[in-house]
Amino acid sequence: MAQAKNGDTVKVHYTVKFDDGTVFETTIDHDPIEFTIGESRGIPVFEQAVVGMSPGDWKTTKIAADEAHGPHREEMVLEVHRNEFPAHLEPRVRQRIQVSQPNGDKFIVTVTHASESSVTIDANHPVAGKDLTFDIQLIEIV
After folding, report:
1. For position 8, what pLDDT does the model report?
2. Of 87, 69, 66, whose CA–CA distance to 25 is shortest?
3. Which residues belong to CATH 2.40.10.330 in the chain?
4. CA dist., res. 103 & res. 18, Å (int)
5. Would you call 22 helix, strand, or coil by DSSP?
6. Is the dihedral of CA 79, 89, 125, 15 positive or negative?
7. pTM over 0.70
8. Buried-most residue among 66, 95, 106, 119 (CB within 10 A)?
């Protein structure tokens, strides 16, 4: 049976969990993700975990925070005045909002605190600073 190798385009299902077993995200009830191993468009250690798997295989791999989405960086947490948000937007804790930088770049932030006068936003990935466990199923080598 064929085994996945660098350069192969694959489809996989995955479930990502924290150390306490809490599921953060899963594709099991959705379409599998598709990527080319070695292109490093996601987490390189995740991609390399698929190498050697055959369609139908399952694997569990633990990925340290530094190899996943990196450490949680405090400099990416900002408190801004509420009047910097559009009037129609009512920021709520855990809400994910797309923001634009002055140069036009857009990115997603998470609201971590909201008061009448200010809003604290976190531009870190939601799982930055956390070790992750991935259950991976190789569905297909395309």
Report:
1. 96
2. 69
3. 74-122
4. 35
5. coil
6. positive
7. yes
8. 119
With H, G, I as helix, E, B as strand and everything else as coil, classify residue 142: coil
Both structure tokens of 106: 């857009």
The dotted CATH code for 74-122 is 2.40.10.330
In angstroms, what CA-CA distances link 82 with 30, 58, 90, 94, 96?
A: 36, 47, 9, 16, 16
The fold of the 9-70+127-141 domain, in CATH, is: Chitinase A; domain 3 (3.10.50)
Question: Where are the CATH 3.10.50.40 domain residues in the chain?
Answer: 9-70+127-141
For residue 27, what are its two tokens? 């594709």
- Across the chain, which distance is largest between two alpha carbons, in Å? 61
Instruction: Name 127's Cβ contacts closer than 8 Å, sequence gap at least 6.
Output: 16, 18, 24, 65, 68, 69
Q: Which residues of 76-114 are buried (b: 16+ CB within 10 A; e: fewer)?
A: ebeeeeeeebeeeeebeeeeebeeeeeeeeeeebbbbeb
pLDDT for 19-70, tens place per residue?
999 999 999 999 999 999 998 788 899 999 999 999 999 999 999 999 999 9
User: For residue range 73-116, what is the model confidence (pLDDT) as tens digits?
Assistant: 999 999 999 888 888 888 999 999 998 888 888 889 999 999 98
